[in-house]
Amino acid sequence: MKTSVARSPLLALALCLSLSTAFASRDVEEVGWRRGEAQEEWGKGRSGAGGRPYYFGEESFREWSRTPRSHFKLLERFDDELLRGSVGDYRVAYLEVALRAFLQLQPSHFDADEVLYVKEGEGVLVLLRKGRRESLCVREGDVMVIPAGSILYSANTHRSKWLRVVMLLNYASFEEFFPVGGEGPDSYLSAFSDEVLQAAFNSRWDELERVFERQSKGEIWQASEEQIQELSRSCSRGGGGSGSKEEEIKPTSLPGQKPRYSNNHGRMHVITGDECRHLRDLDLEVGIANITAGSMMAPRYTTRATTIAVVVEGSGYFEMACPLKSDSGRSERREHGKEEEKQREKSRGYKQVTAQIKDGSVIVLPAGYPATFVAGNEGNLAVVCFAVGSGNDEEVFLAGGNSLLEQLDAAAMAIVFGEQGREGADSVIGAQTESVFLRGPQQQSRGGGGVSDM
Q1: What is the pTM of this model?
Q2: 92, 322, 353, 449: which has the fewest Cβ within 10 Å?
């Protein structure tokens, strides 16, 4: 993803006109807790639609599996027509496994590519793929891609922390397949006839049943300390495989990357397809924005990528400008046909979608939609961003030292603001000297200076 700071004056002029119209005819839709009304129930708001389809709270997840020491939950599909074309094939999931859990995931594979972000803890992941076994050590902050069809099993190796993983799944139908089964889950081998299995494995049926159908521990079970140590003994950070370096599966530390942006108000780290070929194959980038308490990210949009943002630490809120024609009147379009569509296309109005967000919130930011995140005063706000369709994408910032609006030339300024207003507009556009991460609204109102380093 590139940052756009020098575009044509015509584009900047169009941006200015769009922004001025947006503020002139803006609707507000607030979801989550209403600001200043702490008693408001999470996920509720002024809109009867609950702020969909851009915001998803805790109630949007469903349990996939749960035990006393493990938890796997899956976000509902991005099924709304506004999102289906860009991120309809993606799901967000959370996996949590208890501290030093002596728990081991049942070997299985998904019909989906998995992009993992290790939110907390450490563990060992074992992949069976391309005729070999790869044992990998993962830790907090790691990003890793698991190709669809790879048989995977894992364990939490930390002595005092749960292993918590955020997953983005690029799926066909999203099904999990277990080769070994019994009392939940079943083995997929049970779907084959006895004759086929006996011939395929060159074994008697009673032997096959004993191996594949009599496991009674479930998907996740307790392993001994010795077994955990044995799994950990052979794991590495990658780099020792016999395959080509490009095809190698290995974890990459997201906070270990050189910051793309950094100042006292926040920093952002990004892993692109240049650093990870498997992300490039999926046309994805993964980044994390860590915004200092009370600070904000400058309003920005992406030119091509739709961003699936997952809050992994802290709280705050987001705001996004949405064209009214994007979702208002979808039923009218069906009822009144082309005439209504033409009338709606003339609309220059925008509405503000805003939500209080916290750990676990998911926000979808479509390409071209300006948006911002603001951290609460209680602590930093950390947001993991999966940029879907990141090839040839650019970030366009609308305020700050790298604002695209600063590229407006004198003639364009005179046209947009008039000769008398040009000087004032130039002063406003150039007043913010910080870039990307800025003092937040409350810091501005207090007239405070910078904030401490994170």
Answers
A1: 0.78
A2: 449
